[in-house]
Amino acid sequence: MSAREWIGKDFYRELGVSSDASADEIKKAYRKLARENHPDANPGDTKAEQKFKAVSEAYGVLSDPTKRKEYDEARRLFGSGGAGGFGFPGAGGSGNFDMSDLFGQTAGASGGFGGLGDILGGLFGRRGSAGAGASRPQRGADVETDVRIDFAEAVKGATLPLRLSSPATCGTCHGNGAKPGTQPRTCPVCGGSGLVNRSQGAFAFSEPCRDCRGRGKIIDDPCPECGGEGISTRTRTLTVRVPPGVDDNQRIRLAGQGEPGRGGATAGDLYVRVHVSPHPVFGRKGNDLTITVPVSFTEVALGATITVPTLDGKVSLRVPPGTSSGRVLRARGKGIARRDGSQGDLLVTLQVAVPSTLDGDQRKALEALAQASTHYDPRPEITRMLGGSER
């Protein structure tokens, strides 16, 4: 993509965010649009596919702090065509400086500003040499996707198949962009560097080679699948290992499984964001599992042994006599076991259950208990506030 095209694109508008949006806002907007326009969710819908590619491209720039800074600076300087204000020879201060002489035709495979030459090289901390120019290898962009697992899989770990539709190395040309049976040839104009030297008045600078579009190679017969780009959107299936004890909204990194790099550079990484479905009985607090168990009044008053479920079976716990409702008992080692060797517990909260109806014998027994408990005051503080007039 040419530098002119990169600057001309409004990546913020593609994602529907403002230019001062935070990284979290950009990520949230991208994930929403990517889900809505994903090819798997819109089979045969070319508009959705184009939108998916557009938001992926926008996120690839705006999610990278360095690329975003360069993009913002370049748009501020050149986005409105205001180069004439810099007084370049021939500009006359009127803004009619030929921007194509500065940017050339394209920025080559890097997709960034490495091919703008010496003039912008100092601005962005790069040099306008062939070694860092348009043909400079560029690491592939990182990709993020989401998976949902159940509570037990999050606790114990799981191996999941993950189906992705994303940019990947073209399977037909294996990334070189040429039709099978042919090979790209070295550009005779730039000698394979991707850059040529040009003069503009008093200035001399490097710019992307127009013949090879800054790639250093010329493809006479492009690959029919990728159109010579070496990258195509394809569906692939990966195996993701979810470690035991993964937290909700945690990301798992799969190195080298993102978008392929250009110019022989390494591929980006794939980040899998895990969403854990809640369990109908168990909860979680760090490495500990939690559960609330109903008990009867007699069990907490007289003491009892109760059986409590765990994710692996069951465990027996002793309820001491006189236990209050809301007390937490601990079953050690029955929580979450992580790969680092840490082991959580099962925290059991006792909750006294009150029957909604009583038969005759139950009512008589409770009335007898109430009569025998006339000297027991369960609310001493409130009684003192009332002056001892009520219990």
From TrEMBL:
SMART domains reported in the protein's UniProt record: DnaJ
Residues reported to bind Zn(2+) 2: C187, C190, C209, C212
Cofactor: Zn(2+)
Zn-finger segments (CR-type): 157-235
Cofactor notes: Binds 2 Zn(2+) ions per monomer.
Residues in J domain copies: 10-75
InterPro entries in alphabetical order: DnaJ, DnaJ_C, DnaJ_domain, HSP40/DnaJ_pept-bd, HSP_DnaJ_Cys-rich_dom, HSP_DnaJ_Cys-rich_dom_sf, J_dom_sf
Protein keywords: Chaperone, Cytoplasm, DNA replication, Metal-binding, Repeat, Stress response, Zinc, Zinc-finger
Main localisation: cytoplasm
Residue sites binding Zn(2+) 1 per the record: C170, C173, C223, C226
Coiled coil: none
Domain named CR-type: residues: 157-235
The record's note on its domains: The J domain is necessary and sufficient to stimulate DnaK ATPase activity. Zinc center 1 plays an important role in the autonomous, DnaK-independent chaperone activity of DnaJ. Zinc center 2 is essential for interaction with DnaK and for DnaJ activity.
Function: Participates actively in the response to hyperosmotic and heat shock by preventing the aggregation of stress-denatured proteins and by disaggregating proteins, also in an autonomous, DnaK-independent fashion. Unfolded proteins bind initially to DnaJ; upon interaction with the DnaJ-bound protein, DnaK hydrolyzes its bound ATP, resulting in the formation of a stable complex. GrpE releases ADP from DnaK; ATP binding to DnaK triggers the release of the substrate protein, thus completing the reaction cycle.
NCBIfam families in the record: DnaJ_bact (TIGR02349), PRK10767.1 (NF008035), PRK14279.1 (NF010872)
Name of the protein in question: Chaperone protein DnaJ
Annotated organism of origin: Amycolatopsis pigmentata
